[in-house]
């Protein structure tokens, strides 16, 4: 029930001592790719306890891997068909022929099931691999020329089994290949004993190396995806932080705008209406003047509120004429509202080389409004002055009064803060946003001078 050795036609071309190790040769010179289906996209296998890496299989999902897998399929069926044809040509009509044909068909069907069953080492796939190996071994015992078909079995076992089990299977297949070669040879040939194991060892080493390279590439791709996700998350967090900072800055700016306009105007109206209430019976004419003055302030506040809705620019600036005209109008209005109790003068020195930026004009006007409101409410002064000085690289606004003054700390703020102490911090914030400085000089009984200096060549703070 075995093929003849001496003088047997089974020697055939390429199966003699000169071709010793050929069955092992394809294993060493193989493509290094598993059959299609031994690895599918996303069909990963956990690494075995001693491997330290995941076992994703070599086939992969790229076009080159698919072509290599197709080549392995074609090579297997070509080798199987050639081995069966050779047997039928050299042993026609033997009793074992039906068995050889049946086992060959079974081997082909089991091999075709590989892509269907996949590559994870599940019990079903391991059973399919075991049956596949057993059928091949029986074929090799009946017809040694079927040892050629060991090539795909090497890669199937290496792709499905854990490393140690795969190495054991490769060793077993190599033993059968050596035995088949020796049966087909005329005599003992050391090359037939040593070459197949050497080639199988090289093939196994190459396959394992390719597996590990594939794992490293997957890990690198995973790390790159994590880095990209981190980058996107950081960008989203940065954008959210910038939005929050922009919102806070806008809230601060609006609070300063409201304090310097509506709040100050409402405070003045309250004082005037209270004064009118006190003098309504004793001096109706004075009470009416207070009411008219409060009405004028209400009209200005209404204009400011409408301007807030439009573009949050000061109403005086929106009327045209620039900062100088707005300061003159502010001084005249404050003098009229005080009804002789406070006289405000405005003076402009120098000529600007270019129109002042809108932000600078708006900030200086708001500072002047806030400072004069403080003079009116807290200083008890009879005279105050606004001085706008244009220099080559900066503009300076001075607001002075002859009031009672106060003891200022190094920052120029009263030592005892009150609830209504938002004016000076707001002024400082406005000047700081423009890259300038705010200084206050004051002493008890000597009045107060507030100076806001804004550079014209420094980039404005975006905050």
From TrEMBL:
Residues 1-58 are annotated as: Disordered. The chain crosses the membrane at residues 67-87, 99-117, 129-154, 166-185, 191-210. InterPro entries: HATPase_C_sf, HATPase_dom, His_kinase_dom, Sensor_HK_TwoCompSys, Sig_transdc_His_kin-like_C, Sig_transdc_His_kin_sub3_dim/P, Sig_transdc_His_kinase_ChrS. Pfam families: HATPase_c (PF02518), HisKA_3 (PF07730). CDD domains: HATPase_UhpB-NarQ-NarX-like (cd16917). Keywords: 4Fe-4S, Cytoplasm, Iron, Iron-sulfur, Kinase, Membrane, Metal-binding, Transferase, Transmembrane, Transmembrane helix, Two-component regulatory system. Its EC number is 2.7.13.3. Residues 364-458 form the Histidine kinase domain. Residues 35-47 have a biased composition (Basic and acidic residues). It is found in: Cytoplasm. It catalyses: ATP + protein L-histidine = ADP + protein N-phospho-L-histidine. One of its GO terms (molecular function) is kinase activity. Its cofactor is [4Fe-4S] cluster. It is an enzyme of class 2 (transferase). Residues 13-32 have a biased composition (Gly residues). PROSITE patterns: HIS_KIN. Member of the two-component regulatory system NreB/NreC involved in the control of dissimilatory nitrate/nitrite reduction in response to oxygen. NreB functions as a direct oxygen sensor histidine kinase which is autophosphorylated, in the absence of oxygen, probably at the conserved histidine residue, and transfers its phosphate group probably to a conserved aspartate residue of NreC. NreB/NreC activates the expression of the nitrate (narGHJI) and nitrite (nir) reductase operons, as well as the putative nitrate transporter gene narT. This is Oxygen sensor histidine kinase NreB.
């Amino acid at each position: 029930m075995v093929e003849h050795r001496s003088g047997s036609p089974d020697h055939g071309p390429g199966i003699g001592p000169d071709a010793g190790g050929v069955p092992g040769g394809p294993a060493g010179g193989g493509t290094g790719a598993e059959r299609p289906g031994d690895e599918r996209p996303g069909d990963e296998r956990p690494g075995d306890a001693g491997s330290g890496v995941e076992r994703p299989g070599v086939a992969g999902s790229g076009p080159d891997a698919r072509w290599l897998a197709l080549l392995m399929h074609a090579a297997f069926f070509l080798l199987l068909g050639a081995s069966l044809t050779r047997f039928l040509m050299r042993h026609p009509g033997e009793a074992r022929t039906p068995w050889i044909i049946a086992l060959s068909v079974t081997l082909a069907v089991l091999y075709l099931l590989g892509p269907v069953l996949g590559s994870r080492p599940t019990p079903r796939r391991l059973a399919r691999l075991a049956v596949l190996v057993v059928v091949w071994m029986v074929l090799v015992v009946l017809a040694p020329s079927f040892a050629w078909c060991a090539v795909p079995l090497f890669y199937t076992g290496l792709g499905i089994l854990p490393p140690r089990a795969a190495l054991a299977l490769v060793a077993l297949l190599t033993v059968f290949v050596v035995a088949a070669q020796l049966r087909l040879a005329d005599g003992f040939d050391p090359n037939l004993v040593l070459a197949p194991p050497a080639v199988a060892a090289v093939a196994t080493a190459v396959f394992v190396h390719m597996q590990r390279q594939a794992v490293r590439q997957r890990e690198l791709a995973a790390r790159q995806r994590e880095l990209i996700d981190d980058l996107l998350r950081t960008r989203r967090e940065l954008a959210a932080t910038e939005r929050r900072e922009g919102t806070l800055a806008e809230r601060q700016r609006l609070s300063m705008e409201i304090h310097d306009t509506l709040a100050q105007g409402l405070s003045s109206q309250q004082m005037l209406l209270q004064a009118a209430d006190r003098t309504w019976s004793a001096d109706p004419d004075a009470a009416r003047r207070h009411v008219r003055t409060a009405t004028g302030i209400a009209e200005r506040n209404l204009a400011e509120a409408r301007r807030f809705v439009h573009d949050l620019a000061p109403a005086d600036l929106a009327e045209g004429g620039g900062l100088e005209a707005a300061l003159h109008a502010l001084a005249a209005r404050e003098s009229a509202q005080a009804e002789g109790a406070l006289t405000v003068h405005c003076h402009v020195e120098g000529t600007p080389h270019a129109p002042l930026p809108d932000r600078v004009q708006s900030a200086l006007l708001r500072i002047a409004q806030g400072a004069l409101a403080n003079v009116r409410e807290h200083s008890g002064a009879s005279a105050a002055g606004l001085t706008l000085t244009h220099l080559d690289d900066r503009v300076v606004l001075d607001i002075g009064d002859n009031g009672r003054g106060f003891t200022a700390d190094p920052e120029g703020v009263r030592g005892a803060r009150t609830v209504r102490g938002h004016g000076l911090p707001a002024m400082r914030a406005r000047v700081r946003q423009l890259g300038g400085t705010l200084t206050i000089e004051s002493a008890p009984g000597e009045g107060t001078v507030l100076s806001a200096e804004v550079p014209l060549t420094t980039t404005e703070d975006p905050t």
